[in-house]
What does this fold into?
Amino acid sequence: GGLLGIKEKESPLVLKVKANCISYEGFFTYGGLAGRDLEAMAIGLYEGIDENYLKYRIGQMEYLASRLDEAGIAYQSPVGGHGVFIDAAEMYPQIPYYEYPGQTLCIELYKEAGIRTCDIGSYMLGNDPDTNKQLKADFEFSRLAIPRRVYTQSHLDTIADALISVKKRAHTIQQGYKITWEPPILRHFQAHLAPLS
It folds into this structure.
């Protein structure tokens, strides 16, 4: 999902976007979304500029980060308002980038507590278009996106407890994953993985 905003009301770009929207999403004033969804987006946009809401929202991320600090779990700092990015390379130094430490952490969190995350690292970066060799990302993160107005402190504690548990046994995982099938583009949405161990 997303939002596209264009300042010029009737520019050639706007006309092209409107035409494509009709072809692929529905009429441009609703883009395939139900009225309820549009109203939720509008409320979210207003809340996103409310100082009190932002203080609460960032406070949630800071609370989760403080639990991770206590446990010695590395993450991208400072946290923002979207989520927390766990440093999977730090947690799994024994797993090379081409065995996807970020994806390994995502899978371990899912097995531990049913927490769905995603890799923001070499797995997402993909292959060099010329050599087809795996590219090495600058960072190997597992992203904990925290949807707005959904999670309570209890949920954040569950996430922290699961990460602490995964960290305690991280040294027992000596290998990561290999890709057994991938589409030509955007593999991180559809690729199939298998454990190497």
The first strand starts at residue 83 and ends at 87. The radius of gyration is 20 Å. The helical segments are 12-24, 35-47, 51-71, 88-91, 101-113, 122-125, 153-168, 187-190. The mean pLDDT is 90.
